[in-house]
Amino acid sequence: MSPIDYIIQFLLGESAGACRPLVGYTSDAAQWGRYRVVMVPSGFFRDGVYGTVASLPALPLPAWEGVPFLFGEPRAEQVGGTLVVYADLVASAYFLLSRYEEMVRRGVRDVHGRFPGRESVPARGGFIHRPVVDEYGILLRGWLRQAGVEVDEPLAGIRRVYLTHDVDSLAHYRRLRGVAGALLRHRPEEVWQAVRTYVGRLESDPWYTFPWLLEQDGRIDAVRREVLFFVKPGGGDSREDQPHSHVRGGDFRRLFRLLRESGAMVGLHASYEAGRRPELVAREKALLEVAWGGSIACNRHHYLDTREPEHMQALLDAGIGHDFTLGYADVAGFRLGTCRAVRWINPATRQVTGLVLHPLTVMDGTLDGEQYMGLDEETAFGYVAELLVQTARCGGDVCLLWHNTSVARPYHRQLYPKIIEYLADRLGLGGCE
Ligand SMILES: [Zn+2]
Prior knowledge:
Layout: H1 3-12, H2 16-19, E1 23-25, E2 37-39, E3 63-64, E4 67-68, E5 72-79, E6 82-87, H3 89-97, H4 100-104, H5 121-124, H6 132-146, E7 161-167, H7 176-185, H8 188-199, H9 210-217, E8 225-231, H10 250-262, E9 265-270, H11 272-276, H12 281-292, E10 298-301, H13 313-317, E11 322-323, E12 342-346, E13 351-357, E14 362-363, H14 364-368, H15 377-393, E15 398-401, H16 410-426
Parallel strand pairs: 1-2, 2-6, 7-8, 7-15, 8-9, 9-10, 10-11, 11-13, 14-15
Antiparallel strand pairs: 3-4, 5-6, 12-13
Helix pairs in contact: 1-3, 7-8, 15-16
Zinc ion is lined by residues 166, 168, 269, 302.
């Protein structure tokens, strides 16, 4: 399927079957009469433009009924029985869904090789908190109605909730290094807990918060939720991959048993090193499959460190069908411009692939990290609630990422249940209001 065809279908959503033949994307006026709505291409896909800096949109962006778009003009005309629109929502959606700007602006990366969210067009344009691609769908369906086509609006409300947890460190005091740290700090209470945990029960470790996380996640309606733990099995020489997990050891076996009993799933947490060398993904997946004792279909990169857009190909090559990496570490919001699962479009080859991307709504550390948003708890809750309202408005999915280690701190120990409660209370309501 061509990316243009896929994007028009994606915008139409559930109405695509009946409405796709009624929507054209062509500047050839002789063709316009075949459609009820035509979007006129802005030239973004033209040879000599595509892939160059000349194709990047200029700020401030035009808007249609308050919805910012990246290419074309905010005007339309009636030509015979056809509504001809000059706002190029196809190129605008393509730009956002494919992470096109990350390919064109390869020189712009943070210390971890990631494209910074603050540099993105959605952040600079002030709409990172809005799933504008889904708003383009609302506009397109509205234009069809204006052209006399009966088209239903999909039901509002949150569809699925992915409650996800990255296991960077299973426990704090189950290795000598952790205990040594506690001894050096000379706090009697901590020393006692460290020693007791090291020689005794895994469950008394402050980072072994899994039973508590599962209890919180269990408050979301089981029909609507998926609980996913991303586990990093790989070595990797990078400092960021320390400490290495012994996924075949007794502690992990205990965790895996707990997750199985509770119906949670396990996905691959590809290492930091695999962010630099994507070919490592296949090996890490194989290691985890042995430890977990089953096949692994989902991935999220450690540090959200998926570097170049075309690196996603390594996931497909490794047999992974679903990725949950795509949010920005430095600013929470809609990195792909959508809150719905979308197939990965490779901007380098312009192909629609079989890999499904599940947009990450928010990661814990983004909210309070001093180098990131640095929000106090109350402001953070308000910001997340706004993302959830936007998701509900567009009938999308929510994907939360809270680490087992972060909820050992009071900030997230209080914030996470508050967000879960907010979600649980509003899941049945269409508008999440
Ligand atoms: Zn991680």
